[in-house]
Amino acid sequence: MKKSAANKESAATEKSAASGKTPAKKKSAAKSKTPATKKSAVKKPAASAKTSAAQKTASAKKDAPLKRQAPAKKPAVAPKKAAAAVKGVAPAKTVAPKPPRGESRTALVRRARRIDRELAEVYPYAHPELDFENPFQLVVATVLSAQTTDLRVNQTTPALFAKYPTPEDLAAAVPEEVEEILRPTGFFRAKTKSVIGLSKALTEDFGGEVPGRLEDLVKLPGVGRKTAFVVLGNAFGRPGITVDTHFQRLVRRWRWTEETDPDKIEAAVGALFPKSDWTDLSHHVIWHGRRICHARKPACGACPVAPLCPAFGEGETDPEKARKLLKYEKGGFPGQRLKPPQAYLDAGGRPAPPLGAG
Questions:
Q1: Is 226 a known active-site residue?
Q2: Other C-beta atoms within 10 Å of 69: how many?
Q3: Residue 46 annotated as binding?
Q4: Is 150 an annotated catalytic residue?
Q5: What is the pLDDT of residues 272-293, one digit of tens each?
Q6: For the domain that residue 275 is a member of, what is the CATH number?
Q7: Does this model's pTM top 0.85?
Q8: E-assigned strand segments in the chain
Q9: Which of 50, 101, 215, 233 is most buried when burial is the number of CB atoms within 10 A of its CB?
Q10: 131: annotated binding-site residue?
Q11: Element (H, E) at 89
């Protein structure tokens, strides 16, 4: 029985094999089970690989624009900094007594030139306050003005030039006699040595004439850049900045420069103004320093440039008290008698030029 059943089964198998049905079913079954499983197993990693690749591509795309935009960020930041600087400068254009520390170069130039324009209106008659008739007298008077007032020099030079009118005369003078004349100016021995020395140099090296070049003037005994620029600007009409004690004090108060060396101050301030303005600028600043913006007690309340001054408040700010601090040398302005300070103020409380001033 078993054998017949087995034979039947084998016969059925052979028959089905001959017809080709069973192998097809097995093949489909095999494909449906084992290969399908493998395919599904393989597809999952492929999907994850594609996903990771896509993520990398997306991240690369995101990174790419950032790298391209990196250079574009620099100009985007610059306007913000520029705007911040402009905002910081704004108070300097108003009447704020103290402009910001971050004042731009352009704002500084504008403020400095505005101060000079204001002073030009207050002191239209500003000029060298030393009396002289020729370049020789001017260079000698300027040397004598060190450590004393122009008024004292003007009181001394008439006797000196009356006795020694030319460089040749002063070069041959007896030092003791010159010292006696110059005694009221202070440091008379050193000044005597300087004026006799420069007179000899003028006689021996320049034919008795004062040279009109800076490099020649500074070679004369007792003549530095300050004295040379006084002579060049006022005797030869060549622009120059005179950095005396008043000039140094005021330009630092106005924060035109923080330099302390006279040569560096000259260069820094000269860069703020046209060269043609240098000589008049020096007169305006020096006159203002002598009359209102004093070293110890500046008359801030009577100052015409107070709204533009970062140092406003260092002196007396009350207008009435400030007016009492105004100083004018004995003799007042040219051709005028000495008047009380109030006489030099206009209706608005500003220093006004005296009548008849040129």
A1: yes
A2: 10
A3: no
A4: no
A5: 999 999 999 999 999 999 999 9
A6: 1.10.1670.10
A7: no
A8: none
A9: 233
A10: no
A11: helix 21-93
pLDDT at residue 282 in the model: 95
Residues 237-254 have pLDDT tens digits of 999 999 999 999 999 999
Contacts of 85 (CB under 8 A, 6+ apart): 102, 104
**Catalytic residue selected from 31, 62, 73, 226:** 226
Range of the domain at 160: 134-238
Domain assignment present for residue 261? The answer is yes
Instruction: Map 263-292 to HEC letters.
Output: HHHHHHHHCCCCHHHHHHHHHHHHHHHHHC
Instruction: Kindly state whether residues 174 and 146 are assigned to the same domain.
Output: yes
* Residue 190 · residue 203 · CB < 8 Å: no
Q: How far is CA 297 from CA 95, 177, 316, 317, 334, in A?
A: 22, 39, 7, 10, 25
Task: Please name which of 173, 176, 155 lies closest in space to residue 163, comparing C-alpha atoms.
Answer: 173
**Binding residue per annotation — 305?**
no
Q: Number of structural domains, the chain?
A: 2
313 and 174 in a common domain:
no
Better pLDDT: 158 or 87: 158
Asked whether residue 246 falls in the same domain as residue 114, the answer is yes
Q: Is residue 81 part of a domain?
A: no
Paired residues of 351 in beta bridges? 345
Rg (CA), the chain: 46
Distance CA 231, CA 132 (A): 11
Q: Compute CA distances 24 → 8, 10, 14, 36, whole Å.
A: 21, 18, 14, 16
